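Check out a protein:
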Amino acid sequence: MGELVLRLQEEPLPSLSGTWRKGQIVDLPAVGLAARMLGVLASGGRLDIKPSLVASMRTLIPVPGAPRVALVECRSPNVAVTNALHCLFDAVTATFHFVPDGPDFRAPV
C-alpha cells in the first residue's frame, strides 16, 4: 500500500492556481489500510470555459482476493470550507465495506 501512495503526485502547498494535493495512508474500520489523495483540484474547463476549483478526496481501497482497488471519490465546489468537507468525506468513506457473496468473497474479474 505504501508504494501506491508514493506513486501519487503530491503538491503539498497551494499553486498559483490554488490547487494542492497530498497523499496518505488511512485505516478504514471495515476494510483496513487504504491510500488516499486529498486536496483542491481544478475541474472541468474547456477552451471557452475556465476550470473551477473543487475540494476532492479519492480513496483507493484494496479489493480482497484480487489485484484491484475500489475507488471512493468525493468532491464539492465549495472550496471555502475544504477542511470541513474533507472531514465529511472521511466520515462517509469510513462507512465503506465489502459485502461478501457466499462464504469466500472473491472480487469479480
Notes: The beta strands are 20-28, 32-43, 52-62, 69-76. DSSP finds two helices and four strands in the chain. The chain has a mean pLDDT of 83.
